[in-house]
Protein: General L-amino acid transport system permease protein
Organism: Pseudochelatococcus lubricantis
Amino acid sequence: MTALHPAAGYRLSSLRKRFFRTPLQAALSLASLLLLGTLAWKAFDWAVLSAVFTGEGGPAACKAAEGACWSVIANRWRIIMFGLYPYEEQWRSALSCVIVVVMIVLSCLPACWTGKRIAAIWILGVGLFYGLMKGGVFGLRYVGEEAWGGLALTLFIFVSTCVIGFPLAICLALLRRSRLPWISRVTGLIIDSIRSLPLISILFAFAVVVPFMLPSWLQGDKLYRVIWGAALFFAAYQAEIVRGGLQGVARGQEEASMALGIGYWHRISRILLPQAMRNALPATINQFVISFKETSLVIVVGFFEILASGNAAYGTGEWTFAYVEVYAFIALVYFIFVYSLSRYGAFLERHMAIGTR
């Protein structure tokens, strides 16, 4: 007999100690494994073996089958992904989504981590996205924001929230650390007041209440008011994350830079903030993940993002029974983006050696 590799032997011994230390523990482990295996098999059978994948036969074929009805996705995927966007122009919405994904991927590459490159990527990417979605230039048909929907709208709200909210969060964090009490206390009151409110109430206030408080020329479109509300909410939470990162920087570094005569802005931008953002990286990635998932809340104020588009996809009389499959598909879309953000955060932690001082 060939001997086990030392690493394999260690893993086997570890599993035995963790799950099969006593007869009772071994019985519970085997019962749990059997239960999980049974559930996994039933899920696989429902989702794959007994499922209906093609659109042929329509709802009748799905009702006759015992598994999942993926044909609802084959028939209604355009509504889910593009919402109310005009049918003949949906290629623009799809290309806009690709542009946003490429823009995010390029921003994540270490080779692009310079101010000029990041600025060029985001200015070009946002400009192309907005030009494609709205049109009115280069012979493209004009499509107002009220017709935007699906994945493109979700990505637009997420990216805009982060682009506006992140710099605002840094400003709020620095203001809260001000040595002038009236500045730090007022900033703290603003941050704590925003954090004490649910995001839905802020979105509703910016969408419905704010127009009654502002003149017509200052109101703007409802979509942009909602984005500003979401960005303000993001900034309040991220400001506390940044402030925590600043507090984690050794006080002696700031004192040493002051003793050397380094100016405030150079001290903040070159010494304190880089270290603070390194300290706050795990919490920052978590905040980005939360913000992406919270884009679904804009359905409350009447926007057709991907979740609302999914509701419309099965809301017709012939597909009302297939809501589980629609939500499973939307969950997969969310999972792809959220899992990618989480894995990138883990890569950054390894790249920057977080916690290995």
